[in-house]
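Entry 0007
Protein: Flagellar biosynthesis regulatory protein FlaF
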Amino acid sequence: MTHHSSIAYARPAAPIRTARAAEYEVIARITQQLVAANARRDQDFTGLLEAVFRNERLWSTLAADVAEPGNGLPAALRARLFYLYRFTADHSRKIRQNAADAEVLIDINKAVLKGLRGDGAAT
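Output (structure tokens):
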């Protein structure tokens, strides 16, 4: 094997991920942060607000993506995801007012993760 061919067949420095895997990783990380922050809400309400903000930013990004005309997802799924964004934004406002907890947001994210894994519909 020549030097060039050994370089060409060497293991890549970073594994190649699909867009779906990257989405899963981001949603899973934010969901874990939300779970941990919700558990510490009485001791660290600011930490919960930061996790809720990151979750809102995630859902805002997802909503912008599904609203794009070129998005390849089925229209019904796009509409459900956009509805979840609106619900998430409204519920996050209630959390900031200390009038709700983050459990439903965690459940939504977990359902989306389940759908991304192929374990069921992401509704």
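Curator remark: The mean pLDDT is 88. Residues 17-117 form a domain with the Four Helix Bundle (Hemerythrin (Met), subunit A) fold (CATH 1.20.120).
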